[in-house]
Amino acid sequence: MASSVVVANGNLNPNDTRGKTITCKAAVAYGPGEPFVVERILVHPPQKMEVRIKILFTTICHTDLTAWQGENEARRAYPRIFGHEASGIVESVGEGVSDMNEGDLVVPIFNGECGDCKYCKCEKTNKCERFGVDAMKKVMVSDGATRFYTMDGKPIFHFLNTSTFTEYTVVDSACIVKIHIDGSNGDLNRNIKRLTLLSCGVSSGVGAAWNTADVHFGSTVAVFGLGVVGLAVAEGARARGASRIIGVDINSDKFIKAREMGITDFINPKDDERPVYEIIGEMTGGGVHYSFECAGNLNVLRDAFLSAHEGWGLTVLVGIHLSPKMLPIHPMELFHGRRIVGSNFGGIKGKTQLPHFAKECMNGVVKLDDFITHELPFKEINQAFDLLTTGKSLRCLLHF
């Protein structure tokens, strides 16, 4: 499915496998840090309010990497199918699903939206009471069982509401979004590849800049950690007209790519003995309007917080922190006027807001192509993980 996608009657057209248990390829993790085993598995049909998806493209996020490595023992569950950033087509729907049909183009989302709970009905949050991001979740909500099994009938656990390292996956309908993209110009396949990025990284970063921070024209921005999410923050800030975007990372090799994606100035903390916040303070006359912590490191978070200007500076926490340690900020430091806030999935309500966000991205407001640095066949997923681990790739697109 790497070169073309079949279209019939205006919709993407999967095989007629509805209601059947499917045998397909998947990358199964059997232990923390162990190489993925690409093998055939069984995928059961979707149950009530569930959808089965044929995955077209999937990528690897740093969250997949840390979860696979099992850094947090409480979140370990094996065997397991990881992955949460993908694009695909609806193969079949379970009872009660009314907002999508077989053949629809969709993206799975780790932070779902049921539309009925008090959180979903509140415009101030994109949290969902039943289907919000939950790294501990490993089975389906409806019956507490899994939809994945080995060929000899042993259960395989789910991951982050999605599990996309498989040719077919089953997700709750609250965790899937129907997206329409224009294929009339002959670029349907290319656009579906781009769409894959909106499941997590790009949406989380750009959304943090647009929704959580609401970066304004002419503002100054500092981004700590120049992976996909950090660069997506920079893209979002660039699109909003930020006058200066400072990138901070200990890997100077990232700076060349980052310059192409909106970063105007660079700091490698290893190159100067002074604290980064002092350097940024000197560069900007007291600090930036907005700082974004995208590294998942408490020391970096403190630097980001102190890099924000006294009186009005805002720090947005985007990185995932596995450490049980608390925030490295004294309560009285907040009296200086700096603020700090967290951002989950860029503040985007998946089912109601992601389609419009996708349209903006597809129209070129955000340069999506720059995030895809490698493409590999799905069977080479272990090589793709190596590329991410060694810092050689932003997003490696995997195809079946």
From TrEMBL:
Q: Which reaction does it catalyse?
A: a primary alcohol + NAD(+) = an aldehyde + NADH + H(+); a secondary alcohol + NAD(+) = a ketone + NADH + H(+)
- Cellular-component GO terms for this entry: cytosol
Every copy of the Alcohol dehydrogenase-like N-terminal domain together lies at: 48-179
What EC number(s) has UniProt assigned to this enzyme?
Answer: 1.1.1.1
Which family is it part of?
A: Belongs to the zinc-containing alcohol dehydrogenase family. Class-III subfamily.
- Keyword field: Metal-binding, NAD, Oxidoreductase, Zinc
User: What enzyme class is recorded for this protein?
Assistant: oxidoreductase
* Residue ranges constituting the Alcohol dehydrogenase-like C-terminal domain according to the UniProt record: 229-347
Q: Which GO terms describe its molecular function?
A: alcohol dehydrogenase (NAD+) activity; S-(hydroxymethyl)glutathione dehydrogenase [NAD(P)+] activity; zinc ion binding
User: Which residues are listed as membrane-spanning?
Assistant: none
Encoding gene per record: LOC100785720
Organism of this sequence? Glycine max
Identification of the protein by name? alcohol dehydrogenase
Q: What GO biological process, any one, is recorded here?
A: formaldehyde catabolic process
Q: Which cofactor does it need?
A: Zn(2+)
Subunit description: Homodimer.
